[in-house]
Structures are given as C-alpha cells and as structure tokens.
Design goal:
Blueprint: E1 2-8, H1 14-27, E2 35-41, E3 44-50, E4 64-66, E5 69-77, H2 80-89, H3 99-110, E6 120-128, E7 133-138, E8 147-151, E9 154-158, H4 161-168, H5 176-185, E10 198-200, E11 205-210, E12 220-221, H6 235-248, E13 256-259, H7 264-276, E14 281-287, H8 295-305, E15 308-314, H9 316-320, H10 325-330, H11 339-350, E16 355-357, H12 362-366, H13 375-380, H14 386-396, H15 403-410, H16 417-425, H17 430-436, H18 446-452, H19 457-467, H20 469-483, E17 488-490, H21 496-504, H22 506-510, H23 517-523, H24 529-532, H25 543-548, H26 552-560, H27 569-580, H28 586-603
Helix pairs in contact: 1-4, 2-3, 6-7, 6-21, 6-23, 7-8, 7-23, 11-20, 14-15, 15-16, 16-18, 18-19, 19-20, 26-27, 26-28, 27-28
Length: 604
C-alpha cells in the first residue's frame, strides 16, 4: 500500500522531471512513510511513497526496474503466490518476495490481458522505455485511486490530487459541471474530478500513453461485473467464501486488525478472521451522544468472538476537530459525513496495526440499503398517472419537505426508472440543481447506465450502486481516511468468489429488500441472533445539530458571508437560513459547507 506519482510525455530534462516528482512524492508522504523513490528516463519520471506490507526489505523498493520496464504499483495482489509459481514454471527467477515484482514480470511477459487475473486492489503505471509507451491501470473496484492530468508540459498522474496541485496548481481550473455533480451526490461522480484538467482513470480499465506524441488511448475495460446464472445460495456457502477471502487478505509482514461496527458485514469479516488468526485486533468508534453510539454492539460481538478490542468514544469537540482535515484528506469536495468517524477509527487502528480489514461492499452486493425498499416505485415511476404526478411534482418542490421524502415524491415526474433512481440517490435533485447552478449541465451517465441494465429494479439498483456509489464514494472515503494515517484497508467482501455468490443470489435479496437476508442468514450461523437484531443506522453523526451549534460560525462566515459566483448564492443562503431557523436542511447545507472548506484550502 503506497502512493504513486509521475510525469509522462514530458520533454523537460531528466533532473528537472525527477525534482518535480520528488515534490509530488512529498505531498503524499502520509501514504508511504517507510520509503520513497524516484526514477527518471527520456520523457518520463516515476515516483513512489512506500508503506511496506509484504517483503519489508530493499527488494520491495520502487520504482522497480527490470530491463527496459519500470513499474510503480500501489496496492496488494492476494493471489500473487499462485501467479508467481506459474511464472517460475515459465523459467522466471525473482530477486525478492513482493507482489510488486510478480506484477512487473506478468506485465512484461503477457501485457495488460493479465490485469483481469489479479485478485486485489491496485493502481499502477508501467513505462516501457524501448517502445516509449506507458501503461496506466486501476483495479476492478476502484479501491486504489489514480488521477491523470493534462498539463502544459505533458501528463501527470498521482494517487491523490494534492500531488498534482503541488506542481501545477496555477494550471488547474474549477469544473462547474463536476461541482454540480458533487452537490447532487455529495461526491464528484463519473471519471471527472473537481479540476477541468484532471480525470480519474476508470476502475477495471487501462489506457496507454505514447511518450513521444502525448497521445492517450481511450480506456479499455478488462473486467465487468459478472452476470452469473441465478441460483439458490446457502448461508454456509457465503460463510465459506468470506472465510477464504479473509484468509487471502491476512498475508502481511506487518500487524493486522479489523474495523468492527457490530453490524452484519464487519461481524462476518471478523468472525472469519478468528478462524484463520490466533490473535485478532478489532477497532470501533463510539459517540458520547447515545443517539449515535453503536460501540456497545461492537463490544458485544468482540467479546463473543474473543478479539482484542479497542474502542474510542468521541466527544463532540474531538469529532469536530476532524472537520478541518476533510479538505486535506479528500482533495475534492466530499460531503459524506461518515468520513469523520472513518478518519477517527483509522487513526485509532493505526496506533496498533498497519493493515485493517473492513466490511465495505456488503450493502451493494447483498441488498442492504433502505432505499432498496423503493424498488417497485422506481420500476413503475414513469407510469404513474398524470393525476397523481402533478401534485407529486409540486410536493417535490416544496422547500420544507425532507430530502428522502422529496426524492420519493419526485419519482412521479421521472422519465424512466433510471431517472427515478437517480433522483432517489440525489441530495440536490434536478429542480434544486437548476436553481443552485442555472445553466450548468448536471447530467451524467447514471440514468442511461441504469436503464441499459437487465434484471429487476432491485437488481439494477444494486448493480448501479456497485458501479457508481461503491467505487466513487465508499472506496474513496475509506482509502483517503485510512491512508491519511498510513493504514492499509482491505475489503474481503469484494473478493471475486464472494461477488459471484452475491450476484447469483439476487432473488434472495428480493425477498427482503434493504435487509441483506442472505448475509443475515450467514451471520446467524456464527453469531447469536440477539447480537444482530437491531435497526440499521450506518455511521451517522449529528451534522444537523453541529450546523446550528459548533459549526454555525463557519456556516455564517464561509457561506452566508460570501456572494459565491460558482453557484447561486441566494439559493444557498436561503437553505442555510432555513436550517439555522430550525428546519432540517442539513442534506443541503453540509455539502455547501464542505465545499467552502475545500475551496478555502485548495481553490481560494
């Protein structure tokens, strides 16, 4: 687990390129506190900050060079030992024992077609100095970030945007279309970034760069979410698949642990860990406010499983002290408030371990979000009679209607199920965005992609979330929060074998949308039912109260005290005043404040 940086198709002298990449490396030192490296060639320079996990010796140092190929690789490949054995059968000899060396030898011999065989998480760039090309690739779930910037002198890439802003901030311009997407979803969607000149390399894709001409190929998809034949899957099969996935993720030369919320997903992961490891360390965050505190559930699961558990109860001042870290950690506006406890639990875990397993992915793959209960409404939204649609459209525009209720009402005016579902997952819907950012195209591929999918409405909802929300929000939230403290996070529920089972069992999710019936049945085989029977809360925090209390001053200074020109400040001011007066508008005001905090840090 590390951070990678570099310059491609850049004609400046090697020493100048190396110096610039050194500055990029310094900007993301938190991702790799154990080692740093830079190597430059004709028109390129690659950089690496290393968090040593496998092969702690100098043999794991990067950039790693073999012949005319040089690689920087961020991530972990869990099946690297099997792949290494195959290469040894082909006569390949190895210097060290790292997965990076295995990936380098695979790509040298077999090219990008081997990417689909890598079970893990990664972002990589491989320079072929002989062919004068660079291969740029990202893992199938987008767990590891990778940004590509088209700059005046060439191309720059990095694991985090701050490495690019460190050398080219004056070349970057705010992308208002991305800003509109952010206000809609609370994260910047699609393959765009908040800067016009920077894009994200898509998950499950690779592209090639011609170092001589600066030509960049269109991304090539090397993997797509499978569509396995539907079948009945037993709870035992799920437990076995998760246990095997966890065992694969216990390969490490540094201490490991796990995040434990006490919910179904993380509890299953930890139960599987106890089958393969003698001493399991678990970590959870609680809140002094009992309305949001779930630490007791985690502690009960930890006691039952016999883990060495560490829990931290955050006071309101301690939680609020993490708010200024958000713009630094995420580099883009990011308004998922659960990033705050995720930062806190990552910091806590890093005091004891270097690797932590998490339960992310269970909701998207097994049907755990409460919005999935609206599957039938989404399916039939475009067929609602006009007599009903008219009043519902008016209701959807009522400023005091809560965000989710407003979204459900707006389903009545949706042109297709895809548009309906987009409105359901939007925090600022079409009507509000048109007022907040008039004249800005806020469209994205969401609705078209949804409507092109086969299957029931619930299946399409789950697959859409797995292709959008999971990589673009959840994976990025966890990566930035964990890597801000030099902690590697691993996701066993996204193992290919677990994914295959989940997608084959969509019909079982249909039986109880929003309840993850198959995962609940699985966890019931390893934990007492009493430990799991509780309402789903998520990683909630009292943002609405904070905005009227401890965060009132920044709301007044940064939003009400500014006549913004990126969006219609009058609409923003109205939402803030309504919230401060007692109407819950936190779903609108918190993204505005998170943006203004980001702007103050990176754009002002």
């Amino acid at each position: 687990m590390c951070g990678i940086t570099g310059l491609l198709a850049d004609d400046r002298p090697r020493d100048e390129l190396a110096a610039l990449v050194g500055r990029m490396n310094d900007a993301i030192a938190h991702r790799g506190p154990d080692d740093a490296g830079v190597e430059a060639g004709d028109g390129w320079a690659l950089g690496m900050r290393r968090l040593a996990i496998i092969d702690l010796s100098a043999n794991g140092h990067q950039p790693m060079r073999r012949g005319h190929h040089t690689l920087v690789f961020n991530g972990e490949v869990y099946n690297y030992r099997e792949l290494r054995a195959e290469l040894e059968g082909e006569g390949v000899s190895f210097v060290g024992s790292s997965d990076t060396e295995v990936v380098l030898e695979l790509l040298r011999r077999h090219g990008p077609k081997v990417l689909a065989r890598l079970n893990g998480m990664f972002a990589l760039v491989l320079v072929d100095a002989e062919r004068r090309t660079a291969l740029v690739a990202r893992d199938r779930w987008g767990k590891k970030p990778l940004f590509l910037a088209r700059l005046r002198d060439g191309l720059a890439f990095a694991s985090e945007l701050k490495a690019i802003t460190a050398i080219a901030r004056e070349q970057l311009r705010l992308d208002r279309r991305s800003l509109a997407g952010y206000f809609r979803y609370q994260y910047v969607p699609d393959d765009r970034s908040i800067w016009r000149e920077v894009e994200k390399v898509p998950p499950a894709s690779y592209l090639e760069v011609d170092l001589a001409t600066r030509a960049v190929s269109a991304p090539t998809r090397y993997w797509r979410l499978p569509v396995p034949p539907p079948r009945s899957v037993s709870p035992g099969e799920v437990v076995d698949a998760i246990t095997a996935a966890v065992a694969r993720r216990l390969v490490s030369d540094r201490p490991l642990g796990a995040f434990l919320s006490g919910g179904v997903d993380s509890s299953l992961v930890v139960a599987a860990m106890t089958r393969s490891a003698a001493d399991v360390r678990t970590f959870s965050i609680g809140f002094a406010d009992p309305r949001y505190d779930e630490s007791g559930y985690a502690e009960a699961v930890a006691r039952h499983l016999g883990t060495t558990h560490t829990s931290l109860t955050l006071t309101e001042p301690e939680a609020l002290a993490l708010v200024p870290l958000l713009p630094f950690a995420y580099d883009e506006p990011f308004a998922d408030s659960s990033a705050i406890p995720t930062l806190a639990v990552s910091r806590l875990a890093r005091e004891h371990v270097v690797v932590a397993l998490s339960g992310d992915g269970g909701d998207e793959l097994f049907g755990g979000y409460t919005r999935y209960t609206a599957a039938r409404l989404v399916e039939h939204a475009a067929r609602i009679p006009r007599a009903v649609a008219g009043p519902a459209m008016l209701a959807a525009r009522h400023p005091r209607l809560g965000g989710r209720a407003r979204a459900v009402a707006s389903l009545a005016r949706a042109a297709s199920p895809g548009v309906a579902y987009r409105e359901l997952v939007s925090y600022w819907g079409d009507h509000e965005l048109a007022r907040l950012m008039p004249g800005v195209d806020s469209s994205d591929r969401f609705a078209l992609a949804f409507d092109a999918l086969p299957g029931s409405a619930l299946e399409r909802m789950m697959r859409t979330d797995a292709a959008t929300y999971l990589p673009e929000a959840i994976m990025q939230k966890v990566d930035r929060a964990s890597m801000a403290f030099g902690l590697e996070a691993r996701n066993p529920l996204l193992d290919p074998a677990v994914v295959e089972l989940a997608l084959a069992a969509v019909a079982q999710a249909e039986a109880a949308p929003g309840r993850k019936p198959l995962l609940r049945a699985a966890v019931a085989t390893v934990l007492p039912e009493a430990l799991m029977e509780r309402p789903k809360r998520g990683f909630a925090i009292p943002v609405g109260d904070w905005l009227r209390g401890a965060l009132r001053e920044p709301v007044e200074d940064l939003i009400l005290g500014r006549h913004a020109d990126e969006y219609d400040w009058r609409v923003a001011h109205a939402a803030c005043r309504e919230h401060l007066a007692g109407t819950n508008r936190s779903a609108l005001v918190w993204p505005l404040l998170a943006y203004e905090l980001w702007r103050q840090r990176w754009s002002a």
